[in-house]
Amino acid sequence: MKRALLTVMLLGAYAAAGAQEMPSAREASAPLTLRKCLEIGLEQNYDVRIVRNEEQISDNDATPGNAGMLPTIGLSAGYTGTLDNDRTTTPREGDAVSESNVYDQTASVGLAVNWTLFDGFRIRTNYKRLKEMQQMGALKTRITIEDFMASLTAEYYNYIQQTLRLQNFRYAVGLSRERLRITEARVQVGNFSRLDLLQARVDFNADSSKYMSQHELVTASRIRINELLASENLDEKLCIRDTLIRVNSTLEWSVLLEKTLSANASLLMAEHDNTLAELDLKTVQARNYPYVNLTTGYGYGYNRYGTGANRSRGTLGLNAGVQVGFTIFDGNRRREQRNARIGIDNARLTRQQLEQSLRADLSNFWQAYRNNLEVILLEEENLIAAKENYEIAMERYLLGDLPGIEMREAQKSLLDAEERILTAQYNTKLCEISLQQISGNIMVYLE
């Protein structure tokens, strides 16, 4: 009774697992490819959308007006009223005249223009800085997109790996079930002992446990892909068209190195950092030059007097002026110039350090990539041998010439060979993705 109950529970678990893997009608009619996933993610992923908005901000900031090249124009109007008590004494006679509650009024309206014509090339430097920031914003967007594409591509093939591993575990359960059936039949006719039956059942339960646990990894990978795609339903089922991990074995070291030095986004960003450091020095040096400011305006003024010979006065006209100045000493100029030159040197050293780091990463991934390609070839041979070994073992086991333990070893050797080749393929794919990303060629997965 216990055996029957356990068998029913396991079969129920397999049926539920199989139901979880069945795609919906929509998914079955539109299987996802890697390119389709990347296209959806580039439109919906939150990190990509945020960095694109930030790039738009840097585009909006890169204007002559923000750099200070354009004049400022202001319109103002005002009214002032004063209430006084006046006492006036004549200089000769000494007579004093007093007036109380004298109410004077002043009203004005005018248009003023202020324009910095020259400030030691600081305005031009600011504009160049804004343009550099604009280009760096585009590079930041590119880096985020490349990181996203690498992450999604790696997770896409991880989902395939976990799904294939699930199929291998399902196959292992099938093998163990068949072995258990044969053992039960042999025990009934007296060819096998109860010990063989117990061992076969233990192996079957162990394989069943691995199979059910593998579902968690498949689910976790699926949820991660939905998260990268910014799907509303993170538990939405996926229907992936690819069923194998196809490795690109045609990468060339010289091409990868050349592209890395010329197209790597982080390296290009470091070059812009060097340019910004040079612009910082020019900004400080701008204080060595004089500045020229132009002011002009047009306005109307009206004064109404509460006492005196004139009751009111109105003015309407244009005014203009030029201001020229020069900062002789401010106490910080030389220190700031020295620090700016040190900043240029640090930016140059940082760029060289980054290039060296990229070369090291490229070399490490290249070595791992080549080694894993060799491992794949070796494991393919091992898999052929393991399959043949298992077939021979099964024939001997059916004839009763092979103990259950040795049959289990043959089965385990086959499953281990399948696991090793799957792991080697995935590791090679990860190295391939990293090499493409470092060399700035990650967009190849959109082709």
Q: Would you tell me the structural class of the helices and strands?
A: alpha+beta
The unreliable regions are: 1-29
The CATH superfamily is Outer membrane efflux proteins (OEP)
Number of domains: 1
Which range best describes the helical content: under 10%, 10-25%, 25-40%, 40-55%, 55-70% or over 70%? 55-70%
CATH architecture: Up-down Bundle
Characterize the main sheet.
Answer: 4 strands, antiparallel
Oligomer: single chain
Number of strand elements: 4
- The first-to-last residue Cα distance is 58 Å
Content of β-strand: 15-25%
What is the CATH first-level class name?
Answer: Mainly Alpha
Numbering strands along the chain, what is their spatial order in the largest sheet? 1-2-3-4
InterPro entries: OMP_efflux, TolC-like
GO molecular function: efflux transmembrane transporter activity; porin activity
Keywords: Cell outer membrane, Membrane, Signal, Transmembrane, Transmembrane beta strand, Transport
Family: Belongs to the outer membrane factor (OMF) (TC 1.B.17) family.
